[in-house]
């Protein structure tokens, strides 16, 4: 793991993450495996993003004697995927955080302007009391993520983290400019964007690869 504190970015570069990311990028990875990899990578980013969860000491009874242990101290968590591609990350995260509430923000990028267009919002109550993990595998121009973070702040969220599997420097800058308080957890900072706003080297269109739509 390496932290770029000027941009509030944590790059999770664990060998398992790098291995899975290489397979995720591969054009020959099929839809089934692509879905599994997105979910597994989300779980590994979640592991880092929840490192600061508060613990409380508990005593449990093993089959042999009493043992001291730790459990997570009643932290309320919300998970908010940006549709569509963020959906692919939900299962991996909720496997780790089964009591998390799940909300949804539907956004697509306009093909020509690359501006985010919001089409659906359904969020859990009391966002101000929760750690909110925003999920989107791709952070390209940053427009979609910055918009979603702004919306969540308007609805009361104060403790937000963004989990993106692959990030472009342009997207990290855009999110950091508008939301310097929001840390971004990513498996890779890629080289940049092409003229159509795709991340290079990237992995192509994450939504299409997850859902087999192209
Ligand atoms: C993709 C991706 C992000 C967004 C990133 O969604 O899942 O939400 O683009 O680009 P940005 O950082 O430039 O905003 P897309 O618009 O393809 O919608 P989809 O997930 O429904 O296919
Ligand atoms: N959205 C994607 O799915 N892929 C990119 O490279 C950029 C935006």
Structure description:
By secondary structure, the protein is of the alpha/beta class. It has a single domain (9-211), classed as Rossmann fold (3-Layer(aba) Sandwich), CATH 3.40.50.2020. It contains six helices and 14 strands. The chain has helices at 15-25, 31-49, 87-96, 143-154, 169-178, 206-211; strands at residues 2-4, 9-11, 55-61, 66-72, 76-83, 101-102, 104-109, 116-122, 130-135, 138-139, 159-167, 184-189, 192-193, 199-200. Strands 1, 2, 5, 6, 7, 8, 9, 10, 11 and 12 form a ten-stranded mixed beta sheet that branches. Strands 3-4 form a two-stranded antiparallel ribbon. A two-stranded antiparallel sheet has the order 13-14. Helix 2 (31-49) crosses helix 3. The protein is globular, with a radius of gyration of 18 Å. 39% of the residues are buried. The model has no long low-confidence stretch (mean pLDDT 96). The structure holds 1-O-pyrophosphono-5-O-phosphono-alpha-D-ribofuranose and uracil (URA). 1-O-pyrophosphono-5-O-phosphono-alpha-D-ribofuranose binds at residues 82-85, 107-109, 114, 116, 136, 138-145, 171, 197, 205-207.
Descriptive labels:
6 helices, 14 strands, two-stranded antiparallel ribbon, Rossmann fold, 33% strand, alpha/beta, binds 1-O-pyrophosphono-5-O-phosphono-alpha-D-ribofuranose, binds uracil
């Amino acid at each position: 793991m390496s932290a770029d504190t000027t941009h509030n970015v944590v790059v999770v570069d664990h060998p398992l993450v790098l291995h899975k990311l290489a397979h995720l990028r591969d054009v020959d990875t099929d839809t089934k495996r692509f879905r599994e990899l997105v979910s597994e990578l989300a779980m590994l980013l979640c592991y880092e993003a929840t490192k600061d969860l508060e613990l409380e000491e508990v005593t449990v009874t093993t089959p042999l004697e009493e043992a001291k242990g730790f459990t997570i101290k009643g932290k309320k968590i919300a998970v908010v995927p940006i549709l569509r591609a963020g959906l692919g990350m939900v299962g991996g995260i909720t496997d780790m955080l089964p009591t998390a509430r799940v909300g949804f923000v539907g956004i697509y990028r306009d093909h020509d302007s690359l501006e985010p267009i919001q089409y659906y919002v359904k969020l859990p109550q009391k966002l101000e009391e929760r750690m909110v993990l925003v999920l989107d595998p791709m952070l390209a121009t940053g427009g979609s993520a910055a918009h979603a973070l702004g919306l969540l702040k308007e609805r009361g969220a104060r403790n937000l983290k963004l989990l993106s599997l692959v990030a472009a420097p342009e997207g990290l800058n855009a999110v950091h400019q508008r939301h310097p308080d929001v840390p971004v957890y990513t498996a890779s900072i890629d080289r940049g964007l092409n003229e159509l706003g795709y991340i290079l080297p990237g992995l192509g269109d994450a939504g299409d690869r997850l859902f087999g739509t192209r």
